[in-house]
Amino acid sequence: MKNISQSENTFQSLRAACRKAFSLIELLVVIAVIGIIAAIAIPNIANLTEGAGDAKNQRNAQNIVSVYSAARAAGHSGATTVDDAVAVVTGANAAEVGAAKFHVPNMATADLAAAKGYMSIAGSELIYNPAGAAPSPTP
After folding, report:
1. Would the pTM count as exceeding 0.90?
2. What is the mean pLDDT of residues 48-76?
3. Which of 23, 66, 93, 133 is 20 to 30 Å apart from 37, CA to CA?
């Protein structure tokens, strides 16, 4: 009789161990749900990061235009291209008018290039255009 009860105990313990594990179908369902969530989330995250980059470029353009306008108001001669205007307020060649130095904090080259897309020149004034600048007219 002891052998039979021992085998029953062994069978019950094996059965209990099997109940603790996940079935293959349960695992496949979980993987499918994770895949669906990832397929929905990844494009949305990409759009958010792209939108944040656009906002940063517009902020940089606004800062450059503000500093350039202040330099012009203080008596700096006007620029004829967006590149000239940006050079007036960026890097080591920032404009000095009297005792004031008009300078935008150093920006990466790629940030400057992207910010230039939101600026245009009208006469000798640098203009911020949130929709993106039209090509600057040549004088």
Report:
1. no
2. 79
3. 23
